[in-house]
Design goal:
Blueprint: E1 5-9, H1 15-22, E2 26-31, H2 35-44, E3 49-51, H3 60-66, E4 72-77, H4 101-112, E5 116-121, H5 136-145, E6 149-157, E7 168-176, H6 212-216, E8 231-232, H7 240-246, E9 251-252, H8 262-269, E10 287-288, E11 291-295, E12 305-306, H9 320-323, E13 324-325, H10 335-342, H11 359-364, H12 375-381, H13 385-399
């Protein structure tokens, strides 16, 4: 049996690829420039040709060669979004060269002429103007209309599709010459958990949102600095979500806790559900880096926030190793816990180191060869596979694959 082939650009760790595979597509080729993310792709997508290269360095001739042996029905991907991110809204520069990656995505689409393309990005793209003053989204739409594609765009919340995380993302779907009656999938989960408001579009028959504890309660307890990879489960799955995430796996990968000083562990003990390091008394507050005796006056409420177990998780960012504290254990989340909240199955192994030195520091010191996407960044940057599967399955249904 043949499966419709797609090309994944800016593939990262493969969340979008995995969702499309789960929906019945064949990810024939994935292009990713980061060495560790590419290693993750090769480890988990053995039927996919992984090209580790900067998309800007791939010539038109190479694109034509790439598509000469296979017909791609779709081109999918998430062009780098840091320039459009809400978390970067103060420093956002419309001339950020990472934003120009959309032009390379469009170049591939123009040369390959697939039936459809799908772009995933952050909602901030809808509020971004280019250096010319034009809204970025209008320029992107026009770019694809000029090469014959109709575009549909929609904001989708991952929690509305069974992902245990509140994560809103923008999807831009383009179709060659035809309009779709229902370009985006309908929510399957209500988003109602512990008093939260129902999600727009959810029906009365929707399932309840998957909570953080629904997702990770079966994973072995770890103190700071504990854990090994691979390791073993210590109990049976406690929820249907956990059973699905285990996916028949006997080994547990990437479940290793970060090392914390005793003082940081004591700080975590003072933080209750919904609170962060900004709520602790001075005795446990962060200190000035240049003078360990002085209490820092800078408190960031997005750092070290203890999440509620009975609600979907906050959005998992690339820096979630520092953003969140486990509901009951006095440490940050492990990569595997983050992967569970992103809906990656336990059989999916993340390669490379768990964390790396700040990319800003590496750039400042000229250590560019050490700039890689660590496990936490790969997980936080990914499209949740369950959300990707819902979008892909709807495309397959609407387009008759």
């Amino acid at each position: 049996m043949s499966y419709p082939a797609v090309l994944d650009l800016f593939a990262g760790a493969g969340g979008l690829s995995l969702g499309f595979e789960q929906a019945g597509f064949h990810v024939h080729t994935a292009i990713e420039c980061d060495a560790w993310a590419a290693e993750t792709l090769r480890r988990n997508h053995t039927r996919t040709q992984v090209v580790q290269k900067d998309i800007a360095e791939i010539t038109d001739k190479e694109v034509r060669t790439l598509s000469s042996a296979v017909r791609y029905v779709g081109v999918i991907g998430g062009p780098p979004c840091q320039g459009f991110s809400h978390s970067n809204i103060v420093k956002r520069d419309p001339r950020d060269p990472r934003n120009s990656m959309f032009q390379h995505f469009a170049r591939f689409v123009s040369l390959i002429r697939p039936d459809f393309f799908l772009i995933e990005n952050v909602p901030g793209l809808l509020r971004t103007n280019l250096a010319t003053g034009q809204p970025a989204i209008e320029v992107i739409d026009q770019c694809f209309r000029d090469i014959g594609y109709r575009t549909h765009r929609c904001l989708l919340g991952a929690e509305a599709f069974g992902v245990p995380q509140i994560r809103e993302r923008l999807f831009i779907l383009g179709t060659l010459g035809c309009a779709l009656e229902h370009p985006m999938p309908s929510p399957t989960h209500s988003g109602v958990a512990q008093g939260q408001l129902p999600l727009l579009g959810a029906s009365d028959q929707s399932l309840e949102a998957i909570t953080l504890w629904d997702a990770i309660s079966d994973l072995p307890d770890l103190e700071a600095g504990e854990g090994s990879s691979p390791s073993r489960y210590t109990g049976l799955p406690e929820t249907e979500y956990q059973r699905v995430m285990r996916n028949g796996s006997e080994a547990l990968w990437n479940h290793v806790a970060m090392k914390h000083t005793k003082r940081i562990v004591e700080r975590f003990k003072q933080i209750s559900f919904g609170e962060s390091q900004s709520d602790v008394v001075d005795e446990y507050a962060p200190r000035v880096r240049s003078n360990g005796h002085l209490i820092s006056r800078k408190r960031y409420d997005q750092n070290n926030r203890r999440l509620h177990p009975d609600r979907p998780s906050h959005t998992i960012p690339a820096s979630f190793y520092a953003n969140f504290v486990h509901p009951f254990q006095h440490r940050n989340f492990t990569p595997r816990e983050g992967a569970r909240l992103q809906s990656f199955p336990d059989t999916y192994v993340f390669c490379g180191k768990p964390t790396v030195v700040s990319h800003k520091l590496l750039t400042r010191e000229g250590r560019m060869a050490e700039r890689h996407l660590c496990q936490y960044a790969q997980i936080g940057n990914a499209v949740p596979p369950i959300l990707a599967r819902a979008v892909a399955a709807n495309i397959a249904k609407q387009m008759g694959y």
